């Protein structure tokens, strides 16, 4: 039996609930910068009365190049995330890439995130399910929305009843992702809340040769469309200086623009909430 809405720390995401925002830098660069971004996001969330979950990765295990920055690693990264949680009170999420990471990550994070490339990894899903934490699985770029039923079934078999699925674009030719917005209601029909990952949806994998490119100008238009379609949550990577970010800078939103973007999206959300069902 799946829960919908899903409880994530003090928040609830899903049917009949406010729009949830998941936001933060792609990767933990330094403790100081991560704490500063989290504090700013907390202020924005309080001002706009938006439930917000902070996200940052301790390891980017799927970087294009072996020379790319990956992050501080599990031990140091989780220590930073623990301090973010203590100092801001925000619920926390991060990616895990190996089943051995599930237990340690669950001790700190309120929501476990499975990267899109790993959505079919049965042992990883079962290890995550065994922690008892809610789990957000991003739809693989090579899967159809209805294929995610098998992912949900694996998690339920592992004892997890709190599942979110993420839409983050589908491969289209070389170096491009496209969004089929039908994926949002199609995955919701599986009985779970759906997260729209607005910033990863504008990635151009390998577009910069040794790193991933992107087009951040398309983040807000896609997020508006997803909000209008009734997505339960929106996911954004944001950074004070995206052009100098050490991962996913081309598709990250500038932090000083984030509040304005979010405010415009909330106008869309309020409009659809006022429509007859």
Written overview of the protein:
This protein has 277 residues and is of the alpha/beta class. It has one domain (18-272): Aldolase class I (TIM Barrel, Alpha-Beta Barrel). It is 34% helix and 19% strand. The protein contains 8 helices and 15 strands. The chain has helices at residues 31-48, 74-88, 102-108, 122-129, 148-157, 183-188, 219-228, 255-273, and strands spanning 6-8, 11-13, 20-24, 52-55, 92-95, 111-114, 135-138, 163-167, 170-171, 177-178, 194-197, 203-204, 213-214, 233-239, 253-254. An 8-stranded parallel β-barrel has the order 3-4-5-6-7-8-11-14, surrounded by 6 helices. A two-stranded antiparallel ribbon has the order 1-2. Strands 9-10 form a two-stranded antiparallel ribbon. Strand 12 and strand 13 (213-214) form a beta hairpin. The radius of gyration is 17 Å and the shape is globular.
The chain-level structural class is alpha/beta
Mean pLDDT, nearest integer? Answer: 92
Q: How many domain modules? A: 1
Helix content: 25-40%
CATH architecture assignment name: Alpha-Beta Barrel
Instruction: Name the CATH superfamily classification.
Output: Aldolase class I
- Looking at the structure, what is the overall shape? globular
- How many helices? The count is 8
Question: What name is given to the CATH topology?
Answer: TIM Barrel
Please give the number of β-strands. Answer: 15
Distance between the termini: 25 Å
Radius of gyration: 17 Å
The biggest sheet, with number of strands, parallel, antiparallel or mixed sense and barrel status, is: 8 strands, parallel, barrel
Q: How is the largest sheet built, in terms of strand order? A: 3-4-5-6-7-8-11-14
CATH class: Alpha Beta
Sequence of secondary-structure elements? EEEHEHEHEHEHEEEHEEEHEEH
Low-confidence stretches are 207-211
Taken as a percent bin, the fraction of beta residues is 15-25%
